[in-house]
Amino acid sequence: MPIPRRHLFALASLAAAGLPGCTSMLGAPSPTLTLDMSDGTQLFVRRWLAVSGMPKGVVQIVHGSAEHSARYDRFAQHLNRAGWLVYADDHRGHGNTRVRSGALGDAGPDAWNKFVTDEKALNDCVAAQHPGLKVFMLGHSMGSFIAQDYAARYGNTLAGVVLSGSNGVLENADQTVAAVKDLAKANPLGPSPVLASAFEAFNKPFTGKPGPEWLSRDPVEVQKYKDDLACGFVFNNALVADFFAGLRDLWNPANEARIPKNLPFYVLSGDKDPVGGNTAGLQVLLANYKRYGITDVAYKFYPGARHEILNETNRDEVEADIIGWLDAKRA
Question: Is 166 annotated as catalytic?
């Protein structure tokens, strides 16, 4: 005899209650939850569960640098209408997840590895709350790098990975990591000039001056970013050092080759996205995945689009492409 759906939710809640910090309430679920991590950090999580009928699966969104999970609300609602549940945390030092000094841009010690293991804790929570549903990860920008690293460490917990605004190479990796580590040793909590100067360089082709126009061709979306006090902040030196060390290590062939060969990937980018070198860095990533024997890798580059393809002028096309891929891979 099939179990009524309302009882399945109750069983999922009981299963989730067995995980530290993973709590769920019977009845109407809260749109947010907090995961209590082993080091005392409270990881803030948003979830979008407004799906009519039986969900197709779960999309775990991993946001980018100097932003937060609420910026994915429009896309998450679109996923809900298409039958997909959605979860997304605020990374340490972002949004509502604060550590150490409490400042945006301060993610605490060993930040990169904790970004990745936080996603594993959230994945465990999602699996407990929604047993039997496949979980796909969508990472944007810095979140796409976290997703790449996650795939190498925990790829068997995912049904597929979507990478948005990504890259596949860190030029002069050892020298870059050494330089940012020196800054971190001298002034760990001081504002880092490194990413700030990179963002300025990203914007020069579009306006010739500093600004966030490199994110999107849509001036309304650019203005939203400018007006959001939880966006565009500077990382401290310690976080930048951890970030670049994380990039160097995730693209170490010995680590990258650990990605399960049958894990599907969908790589998406604007062809004017400076983060991926106008797709040059993504060509490296795609070639590496082929060399490692990963068998299911699709990609699409959008002409004229910039970094935040989910906030671009052709976002309807991007959303439809992602949902179409998810629907195809859930079978």
Answer: no
